[in-house]
């Protein structure tokens, strides 16, 4: 096994698997993000718009016995609702779920950080995704 793959495997084994809600409307990017996260051992629920995101969040928060999410990764400009609105709404209800906002707008990035979110600034690579997940879950 080459050195890079061995290091990657060791890093992945040292982190507990997370249940992640991934909200991204660009199907190809969503699938690539999910592939990276699933390869790292995480369970990923994928949604492509604001309605599906809110439905998945609501069912995990209010339905008895429904598994909760450990982390939300959300595009800021998601059709149907802005990612920042989701983050602010969760924080307004004292929900401290780990949150990664995919956003290139510096003002929105600053707001997200003030609310305890982690920012993933496009364009990004697999290591940036992994770093954002590690930072958010720490």
Q: What is the structure about, briefly put?
A:
The protein is 50% helix and 17% strand.
Write the layout of secondary structure elements.
Layout: H1 3-14, E1 19-23, H2 27-39, E2 43-47, H3 50-62, E3 71-75, H4 83-92, E4 98-102, H5 106-114, E5 118-120, H6 126-137
Parallel strand pairs: 1-2, 1-3, 3-4, 4-5
**Strand order across the biggest sheet?**
2-1-3-4-5
The number of helical elements comes to: 6
Q: Give the class-level CATH name.
A: Alpha Beta
Q: Which stretches are poorly predicted, pLDDT < 50 over at least 5 residues? A: 1-14
User: CATH homologous superfamily?
Assistant: Response regulator
As a percent range, the share of strand residues is 15-25%
CATH architecture: 3-Layer(aba) Sandwich
Structural class: alpha/beta
How much helicity do the residues have? Answer: 40-55%
The tally of beta strands, per DSSP, is: 5
Rg estimate, integer Å: 15 Å
Taken together, the total number of domains comes to 1
General description of the model:
The protein has helices spanning 3-14, 27-39, 50-62, 83-92, 106-114, 126-137, and strands at residues 19-23, 43-47, 71-75, 98-102, 118-120. 29% of the residues are buried. It has one domain: 3-Layer(aba) Sandwich (Rossmann fold). It has 138 residues and is an alpha/beta fold. The longest helix is centred in the N-terminal third of the chain and has 13 residues, at 27-39. Residues 1-14 have low confidence and may be disordered. It is built from 6 helices and 5 strands, in the order H-E-H-E-H-E-H-E-H-E-H. It has a 5-stranded parallel sheet with strand order 2-1-3-4-5, with helices on both faces.
């Amino acid at each position: 096994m080459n050195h890079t793959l061995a290091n990657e495997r060791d890093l992945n084994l040292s982190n507990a698997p997370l249940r992640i809600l991934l909200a991204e409307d660009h199907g190809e990017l969503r699938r690539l993000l999910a592939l990276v996260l699933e390869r790292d051992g995480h369970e990923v629920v994928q949604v492509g718009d604001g309605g599906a995101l809110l439905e998945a969040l609501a069912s995990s928060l209010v339905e008895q016995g429904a598994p909760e999410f450990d982390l939300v990764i959300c595009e800021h400009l998601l059709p149907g609702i802005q990612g920042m609105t989701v983050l602010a709404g969760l924080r307004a209800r004292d929900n401290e779920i780990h949150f990664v906002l995919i956003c290139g707008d510096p003002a929105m990035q600053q707001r997200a950080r003030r609310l305890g979110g982690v920012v993933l600034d496009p364009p990004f690579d697999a290591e940036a995704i992994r770093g954002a997940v590690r930072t958010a879950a720490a």
